[in-house]
Amino acid sequence: MPELPEVEIVKRGLERLIVGRVISDIQCLDSPKSLPVRQRDIETRVQGSAVRSVRRRAKLLFIALSSGYTLIIHLKMTGQVVYRGDHSFGAGHPNDSLVGSLPDRSTRVIITFRDGSRLFFNDQRKFGWIKLYRDDEIAQVISRLGPEPLDDSLAQAEFIARMRRRSGTTVKAALLDQSVIAGVGNIYADESLWAAQIHPRCKVREITDEKLGNLLNEVKHVLELAIEKGGSTDKNYVDAEGRRGSYLSFARVFRREGQPCMRCSAMIMKIRVAGRGTHVCPSCQRAIG
DNA sequence: CACTTGACCTGTCCGC
DNA sequence: TGCGGACAGGTCAAGT
């Protein structure tokens, strides 16, 4: 579930909470996937190094260390990265928090800082991961990603050209393709397509340049609104302090099947497109763009 | 090659 | 109440 807005919120929180702190220990509690076997010596490589910066690219989180290494985190569907300072263990966390005392049974990795505060990586479904890379390996990791949708330097023409590379597939599959545009997932794909009045099953080749250009604008608007609302929390997602996001109460199609369309009052339907549950207004999102 | 489907996991919900 | 199965969705390997 964490898509671009959720990862961006976590990044902003971590930037404020952990930059400058020195790592004293990193523990992997379970799941070799969270810390791959080839990185068994990860502890010696991060111990004693300071957090230099926290960045985001697509749905990836980068924690750059003073040692010349960077921890890269992917939250996949149910990942959480939650920081707890000295005085917030156990009960007594903020009342809008979704997580209780930590570690809990979904905790996979604990990073302890020299000042005693800790960073918890939780992941109920174990799809997410944390890996340590040398700084000079990072370019390779992100080499296949498309442009950031919120980057002002992304021209409409480039977005259209990239979408056209997937002209034979559905517009929803193209939007979800991280090499076309980076950071859009299932929730914001549905929301953006509703806003642009494009049916998710529409083939890219059937859509005019004008409609595709408009789609990029709607992707930007949706992502910006989602960031403003702290992201979407369905079951698991929380920010770096354990707080939920509120975007879903502003969503216009996602999880609104059976309810009236906010634009034309027709009933929102749930269908399957690109192998995903997909929410659409069959009346005002026409099949042909 | 272009595109689609299944696997990876676990918690939850629904029907019998 | 218990149990099997479907479902949730990001990504990549495998299949068509």
What is the secondary structure topology, with strand pairs?
Blueprint: H1 4-18, E1 23-28, H2 42-46, E2 51-57, E3 60-65, E4 69-74, E5 79-84, E6 107-113, E7 118-123, E8 129-134, H3 138-141, H4 156-164, H5 171-176, H6 186-195, H7 209-228, E9 269-273, E10 276-280
Antiparallel strand pairs: 1-6, 2-3, 3-4, 4-8, 5-7, 6-7, 9-10
Helix pairs in contact: 1-7, 4-7, 6-7
The structure holds a DNA duplex (16 and 16 nucleotides).
Jot down its keywords.
DNA-binding; globular; alpha+beta
- Report the biggest beta sheet as strand number plus sense, adding barrel if it closes: 4 strands, antiparallel
Question: What is the succession of H and E elements?
Answer: HEHEEEEEEEHHHHHEE
Decide which structural class fits the backbone.
Answer: alpha+beta
CA-atom Rg in angstroms: 20 Å
Give the % helix. 10-25%
Number of strands: 10
Task: State the low-pLDDT regions, or none.
Answer: 89-93
Amino- and carboxy-terminal Cα gap: 28 Å
Using the alpha-carbon principal axes, give the shape.
Answer: globular
Spatial arrangement of strands, main beta sheet:
1-6-7-5
Give the integer mean of the pLDDT values.
91
Q: How many DSSP H or I helices?
A: 7
Strand content: 15-25%
Can you describe this structure?
With 289 residues, the chain is α+β, with helices and mostly antiparallel strands. The protein has helices spanning 4-18, 42-46, 138-141, 156-164, 171-176, 186-195, 209-228, and strands spanning 23-28, 51-57, 60-65, 69-74, 79-84, 107-113, 118-123, 129-134, 269-273, 276-280. The strands form three sheets. A four-stranded antiparallel sheet has the order 1-6-7-5. The two termini are 28 Å apart. The longest helix is centred in the last third of the chain and has 20 residues, at 209-228. The protein binds a DNA duplex (16 and 16 nucleotides) through residues 1-3, 31, 33, 59, 74-78, 106, 123-128, 166, 168-169, 173, 176, 178, 185-187, 234-235, 274-277.
